[in-house]
Design goal:
Blueprint lengths: L7 H5 L4 E3 L10 E3 L2 E3 L6 E3 L2 H25 L6 H23 L33 H10 L11 H17 L12 H23 L1 H7 L10 H52 L3 H44 L4
Helix pairs in contact: 2-5, 3-5, 3-9, 5-9, 6-7, 6-8, 6-9, 8-9
Amino acid sequence: MAGHAPDPLHDVQDHDRFWVFFEELFGGVRWELPSFPIPGTEYRFQITKFMLLELIAAALLLLIFVPLARRIRAGGLPRGRFWNLFEGLLLFVRDDICRPNLDGGGHHHVHDPGQDAGHSQGRAFDARVPGAEDHPHDHAHEHSHGTSAEHPGDAYLPFLWTLFLFVLSCNLLGLIPFMGSPTASIWMTGGLALVSFVMFHAAAIAKVGVVNYFVGLWPKIDVPYVGWLFSLMIYVIELFGTVIKSGVLAVRLFANMFGGHMVLANILLFIYVVGNAAGMGLLWGGVTLASVAGVVALSLLELFVGLLQAYVFTFLTALFMGMALNPEH
């Protein structure tokens, strides 16, 4: 086991190679990812490990939720633990993230858990389906949750669904051996935060128009002579505040995922360090067992953190969108 000790930071970051375990220990087990020339320039477009993982996350979402959507649209109920779990995630985003933040506080429903007893947790989509008259419980559920007219925030529900599920998938990929979490890159989380930043403004602009939106941000301060100056200062601060909010979203997600994987990599590194210093003896065996047990325990914590950070990122995005859509609330 003698040799140069691997760098945990190197193995957590994004690269143009895909390898198994530590690259320094198993340098021969790796795959070079392709790059393509950019026409008219001397630069090349490099496919990276995190790009590949993002595509894998997107493909998994398509494979899971497109069939689920078709089944629900056709009037069928999810069967089995996994299908109900997936629909439960959609209902969670709708009822606990989207509607409370984007409906403007004007409409709230009281959900009776007894209405869902004996069948699925409910429709994740409010669209009427053929043959609905043959399923009386569908009418009760639709009445319980309200229609799309009563929940204007549902117009942005597909965006929030996609955001939550994509962030969650990218977070959880890091718990699979040989994989990694794309959200451990500030560039990736920065891209997600940029999308959220656009939606902060685009949702309100689509509702009231460009001019009315930016005029509405101007605070009216009735102070002789200097009122306009205070208004201008607050106006600039408000606009700059949306940039800060997006930056906080990016840094929060990146720091949590990057820090967690760094801790896991360092714990596994103890096995190499002790084996390199003391050989494969009793001490090395004890450290190996302790390291593996620690990684398993922390991986369970990382599972919770991955779920929590996907929720926080989506919730704050919905909250900031709701503040722009419904400034009166």
